[in-house]
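Final report, section 2: Outcomes. Of the targets proposed, IS110 family transposase is the one most frequently requested by collaborating groups, and we therefore present its record in full.
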Amino acid sequence: MTKVRRKNGIGKDREFKVVHLNAAGVDVSPKEMQVCVPSDRDEKCNRTFGVYTKDLHEISAWLKKCGIDTVVMESTGVYWLPLFRVLKGDGFDVILVNPREAKNYAGKKTDEADAHWLMTLHTYGLLKACFQPDNVTREIRNLVRHRDNLIQSCSREVLHLQKEMEQMNLKLDNAFSDILGKSGQAIIKAILDGERDPERLAGLADWRCKKSKEEIKASLQATWDEDHLFIMKQSDDLYHYYKDLIKDTEAKIEELVNRYSASVDADKAAAMERSKKQKQLHNDVSFDIEQYAYNAWGVNVMRMPGMSKNSALRLLAELGPDFVEKFPDARHFESWANLVPNNKISGGKLLSSKVPNKNNPVGQVFRQCANALWRSNEPLGDYFRHIKARSGHLQAMVATGKKMAGIFYTMVKNKKEYDVSIYAKSKEKTLERRIKKLQAKILRLQNEQAQSGLKVTDGTD
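The predicted structure is given below as C-alpha cells.
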C-alpha cells in the first residue's frame, strides 16, 4: 500500500491552484438557465435567464461583458445543446461535464448553489470534460441513432405480423427460416391480396427451399379470421413504410459522410485493400461504408475480425474522424468506452472491480463485435473462448471488446492496417508457455510417484 500512496501522492500537502480564472457555471433546466460568474465581475453575479433563443444570446452577451472565456455546464438531457451551440459559436470554451462528477455539497439544493458549485469546481480545474464530436459528426450521429430506432420499429412490426399469423394457425415461420425472405414475402403479399388456396400459395415458394411442397402446403392451412388479417395488413404496411424511411435516412447519412471524402486523395482512397466479408444482412447499410470509413480514418477497420458494416457506421457516427486527438492513449479510450473495471480500494483491500453500469454506445458496439467472435478461428476468437471458459460469457464480451477497442484506436492513431500475424505470434508464445507449464507439472508428478514408491499401471496387466 505504501507504493500506491507514493505513486498517487497520497499523504502529501496539496494546494488548490486556480486553473481557469475567467470561468462561469451554468445550471441547465427545461424552463430557465441559472448562470454564475465570479463575484468581482458583476453586482448580481448569479442570474436567472430564460430558455428562448433571445435569452441564450443575452447570456452570451452578459458573459462577454463579465470577461468570461470558459463556461461549464452539466449534460442535462438535451436541454444543454442550444446554449452549448450559441456559446461555442460566440467563441467561448464550453465544457460539458457528467452530472455524477459534479455533485453538489451537502445542504440545501438550489439552482443558484448548483451554478456556483460548477463555477468553483471549474475554476480549480476539478472537472473533466465530456467527449464532444464536431458538428458534422453530430449530425451523422443523430441520423444513425434515428436509423437504429427505425430498425427497431421494423422489428416490432415483424413481431406483430408473426403474432397475427400464429393466432390464425398460419405456420409460415415453420416452413421458412426467414419470413422476410423472397418466398415469405411473396406468400404474405398474396395472402393480403386475397389468395387463400394453400396449393397456389405453396407454388410461390422458391425452388431452393429445403421444406417439401407438401409441408409448405400444410403450414398454409389457416382460419383466415378477418380481424387478424386486417391487423396483419396494417403491420405489413408499416413494415414497408419503415423500410422506405430507412432508405431515405441512409441517403441523407451518405450525403453527410461524403464530406469526409473531400480531404482524401483519390489515388489513396482507390488503393484501399477491401475486407473479405461478403455476407449481407437484412439491416446492413446500403452504401459503401467501408470506403467512407477508410476516407475518414485512413485505415480499413472492416478488416478487423467481428467488425460489421453497421458497427463501422455507428463508430464513425459516434466518434468522428479526429477522435484520437481527444484521447491521449488507448487506455483512456478504453476507459471512456466503459470497457475496463472500476477498482475500488479501501484499507489496502480491493472491494470491487466491476465494470461501471454506464450506457456508452461505443462500448456497446465493441461488445457486439466481440460477441460475434465466439465461433471465429481468429486469435481474437481464441481469446474470447479462453476468457469465457474462465470467467463466463459476459466477462468475455467485455474483455474481448476492450482488446478490440485498443486495436481500433492503435490502427487509427498509427494509420496501420490490422495485422493478424502479430496476434498469431502471441498465440504461439502462449502455447509454448502452456507446454512448459504442463511439462513442469508432469515432472513434479513423476517425482511424487518416485518418492511414494507407487507403480502406476496403464491398465494392460
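The chain is about 55% helix and 5% strand.
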